[in-house]
Design a protein that fits this description.
binds zinc ion, Rossmann fold, alpha/beta, 12 helices, about 10% strand, about 260 residues, 4-stranded parallel β-sheet, two-stranded antiparallel sheet
């Protein structure tokens, strides 16, 4: 990210913490859906081209862990040492301002404009069309039944639908993975606990087994944090006979600061 973009991000961060400004923007957004959610400019919403360029720069990332890596054609050293079970994972942005707030808003409000603006971010990444072209089927990471009942929708499925409206996509398997009953919720756990708890998190239901067997499956999610959820999903799909698994997420949690 260049210096101007960094300054802009810091400006936006400080403005976000100014309650009345963000309240005003929210009110404006409700009245004028065309307002850019980041800078408030209209009619350019929900994400104007300037904000997209400045706040979602294309950054080369490791195909194994989706963390920034100078050579996007090669995996980082950690992924070469301990290869992940998936073939390729693509993340578009860091899970940082403003995208962390967008993803949270997508989860809490489900506003369709957010899903489509986030899905649009994927389209300017040249890795994404190739990922879609390679996939035979795609499916969302499922929520727990309890969370799905509380929220009323799965944000990963909203993102998939939004992307499918913008780009030809392979057939969807919305129920291709299930959370195993009583599987733990990982989001509040630390890295080590997540990795330990993620085993057996998902299963492929017998009814969709034949649609996964021998296929290359693309898994969609909003955020990749430690990769534990993705790892569990990939293992469940490979155990069910998938030929290979790739993953596409909007945001990647940056590594902890040194
Ligand atoms: Zn803007
Ligand atoms: Zn890596």
């Amino acid at each position: 990210m260049d210096a101007d973009a960094r300054v802009k991000r810091e400006d936006m961060r400080s403005m976000r913490t100014t309650g009345w400004t963000s309240d005003l923007w929210r009110a404006l957004g409700a009245l004028c859906p065309a307002v850019c959610e980041v800078c408030g400019r209209w009619p350019d919403g929900p994400l104007c081209p300037d904000c997209q360029r400045d706040l979602a720069p294309l950054v080369p990332r490791c195909r194994g862990c989706a963390l920034p890596h100078a050579d996007a054609q090669r995996r980082c050293e950690a992924c070469r040492r301990a290869p992940p079970p998936w073939q390729t994972v693509v993340a578009r942005v860091d899970f940082d301002h403003p995208w962390d707030a967008w993803v949270r808003a997508l989860k809490s409000t489900g506003r369709p404009g957010l899903a489509s603006a986030l899905a649009r971010l994927w389209l300017d990444d040249p890795a994404v069309p190739a990922l879609l072209a390679d996939a035979d089927v795609w499916l969302p990471i499922p929520l727990t039944a309890h969370r799905l009942a509380a929220r009323g929708y799965n944000q990963a499925w909203s993102l998939m639908q939004a992307l499918a409206r913008l780009q030809p996509t392979p057939p969807a398997l919305p129920q291709g993975l299930q959370r195993t009953p009583d599987a733990p919720v990982l989001h509040h756990l630390g890295r080590r606990e997540r990795l330990a708890q993620a085993q057996g998190l998902f299963r492929v239901p017998p009814a969709t087994g034949s649609q996964v067997r021998g296929r290359r499956v693309l898994v969609i999610d909003d955020v990749m944090t430690t990769g534990a959820t993705l790892r569990a999903a990939t293992h469940a799909l490979l155990d069910a006979g998938a030929a290979a698994v790739d993953a596409l997420v909007v945001a990647r949690t940056p590594p902890p600061m040194e």
